[in-house]
Amino acid sequence: MTPSSPSLRRLLFSGRHPLATHHHLRCRHSLSASAPAPAAGAYAATPAPSRDRAARLAAAVHGAAAAKNFAHAIRLTKSLVQASSSSPGRSPASTAPTSAGAAFAALASTSTSPAPALGVLVIALCQMRLLDEALSVFRRLRTLPELPACNAILDGLVKACRFGCAWELFDEMLSRGMVPSVVTYNTLINVCRHQGDVMKAQEVWDQMVGRQIDPNVVTYTTMICALCEEGCIGDAERVFGAMKEAGMQPNLYTYNVLMSSHCQRRDVNIAFVLYQELLKSGLVPNAVIFTTLIDGFCKVKRFGEAKEMFLDMPRFGVAPTVPVFNSLMDGAFKSGNAREALAVYQEMTRHGLCPDEFTCSIVVRGLCDGGQIQVAARFLEGVRLSGANLNAGAYNALIDEYCKNGNLEEALATCTRMTEDGIEPNVVSYTSLIDGYSEVGNMQMAMAIYTEMVAKGIQPNVVTYTALIRGHAKNGGLDAAFRLHKEMIEKGVSPNAITVSVLVDGMCRENRVQDAVRFVMEYSGMEYNDLHSFFSNSSAEENHLIPNGVIHMTLIYGLYIDSQHYEAGKLFSYMRKSGMVPDSFTYTLLIRGQCILGYVLNAMTLYADMMKIGVKPTRRKVVCPEIWSWVPLNDTRTVVS
After folding, report:
1. Per-residue model confidence as pLDDT tens digits over 271-313
2. What stretches of residues are PPR repeats (predicted)?
3. Do residues 623 and 638 touch, judged by C-beta distance below 8 A?
4. Which helix (H) or strand (E) is 509 found in, with range?
5. How far is CA 228 from CA 221, 241, 410, in A?
6. By C-alpha distance, which of 476, 465, 477 is closest to 434?
7. pLDDT grade, residue 7 (50/70/90)?
8. CA-CA 20 to 30 A from 263: which of 190, 447, 471, 603?
9. CA 203, 207, 210, 214 torsion: positive or negative?
């Protein structure tokens, strides 16, 4: 083994405990439960090509395999299998077992040493995605086929996401004397990547190195991909460095994996440095590389640099693709430049590219976000009439915007058109409608839509339940809100911080501040006796576990309107020490409360803290946020700061 093959345990995980020997996952149907091979008589009874033709094809396969012309041997074997499956009135899937068996019989009966050709049959069946037939042939072989056949069947199982079967078959191959190659281990590391098990991938790597097998470019790239997908970008960078130190040239896929991971973390500058390194190494970027960088720049609203990358594509002979145009349009919309986004759309059509379903969703959503709902509706109608591909996303964007604007009639009409166009409303469609009707207090209609949704087999998610809970809590139906809260938990949908906040808000509306605090404490896993003892407990700060700023601010508002200014201030202190940032409205409440109590110095301190963390004070009336829209009858709905 060369010095360029370090143990991955030493390279990345020197400070970690080694993982215990893993227990292989079992496939849904065990390999031993594979369909048994039919008897020879069954093959004879199966419609098949003439014996002479089968014999000629089989002889040709044997000859090509003996000459080591495996590509030709595989093509001939596929012809043999396909010819064996030609049966009037029967689908290829239904004839696959008998055709594979007939091919096996033909190859086995036309040579005294059929093993090489039967290994080719395994490879051909895998390439034809007839994995069960390939497994059946593999298990009928008295001797282990050549390594390429073993690798082919393992790779086929991985592509079919039958990971447990792949591990089980690998164990069986080892027991039958297989000597794995770097290709074998690359496949196994890829299994670990798909299973999200980086530690097992490390074990496979170290086992490979222990067998004196050097990793190649694919090995390094697959490991880098596995680490990036699990968020271990630092470890991925170290493997990337080790790869270059070993004298291996990363390929475009290697670079793209790292660039994409950095862009997802909004580290587009690092991604661009990798792009420059790619160019210096002599590699020519392709459309995927450009798409990654353009999308990365757009995500951080650096549209100008994204446009420069786009204009640089022709220099490398790379034609722009629909995903590139989609990223540019999305970036332009998010930068507030709808005119530029529509210009990009027009340029895409001038290139002769047809917009896909994502294109339409991006344009409709971008126009809606910019307040141009009528333009969005006309665009969607034009695309619909043109016959272009549409998905639920474009309709959902329009439905959601209509609901936000209170135009529920048009939202329902859009949902109806969506169904007429053959696109079924999904959980997002129904949730937008439910939220819209809940917003205007029409809980009867909101519940009717919810009932229809469930009847159609569409499972509500946390956003759906939260919209219903908020509607009931806001309109005096707190009992119904808590019933829905119980239902969602029973159905396995976990409430989030917003769900808790709307329930707290509902209790504060009914002057049940003690109950609200108790509910939050229980949700946070904290012990609670009463409000006074909680805030007077010196250890409460250490045990403070309220997980979200929205919950804090909702409770602060509830305490404030209940004239419990000290407790509101105490909770605010916990919030700040937890690293959460209150909004301007929360600061305004507390500053006003301190002034009412005569603690002007405290009020000035709060104002200074507000300025220090960058929360801008308001110089006009502050309207209470929707989640805190209730105030006592003898108070106003606004606070002057």
Report:
1. 999 999 999 999 999 999 999 999 999 988 898 899 999 999 9
2. 146-180, 181-215, 216-250, 251-285, 286-320, 321-355, 391-425, 426-460, 461-495, 583-617
3. yes
4. helix 497-509
5. 10, 14, 44
6. 465
7. low
8. 190
9. negative
The DSSP H or E segment spanning 378 is helix 373-386
| Residues 192, 200 contacting (CB under 8 angstroms) | yes
3-state SS assignment for residue 623: strand
CA distance 630 to 473: 11
Task: Please report, for residues 33, 144, 158, 209, 596, the alpha-carbon distance to residue 152 in angstroms, rounded to integers and kept in the order given.
Answer: 21, 13, 10, 22, 78
* Close Cβ partners of 170 (under 8 Å, ≥ 6 residues apart): 154, 184, 188
396, 426 contact by CB (below 8 A): yes
Q: Which are the contacts of 588, defined by CB distance < 8 A and separation ≥ 6?
A: 617, 618, 622, 639, 641
Nearest to 284, CA basis, from 324, 325, 315: 315
- Tell me the pLDDT tens digit for each residue of 526-566: 665 555 555 555 344 444 445 556 666 777 777 776 677 77
The amino acid present at 590, given as its one-letter code, is: L
> Given CA atoms 471, 472, 478, 483 in this order, what sign does their dihedral have?
negative
Task: Say if residues 381 and 373 touch (Cβ distance below 8 Å).
Answer: no
Q: Which of 326, 323, 290, 287 shows the shortest CA–CA distance to 308?
A: 290
pLDDT tens digits for range 474-507: 888 989 999 999 999 999 998 887 888 888 888 8
Residues 175-218 pLDDT 10s: 989 999 999 999 999 999 999 999 999 999 999 999 999 999 99
Query: How far apart, in whole angstroms, are the C-alpha atoms of residue 333 and residue 397?
Result: 14
Q: Tokens at residue 227, please? A: 């680490």
Exposure class string for 163-173: b at 16+ Cβ within 10 A, else e: bbbbbbbbebb
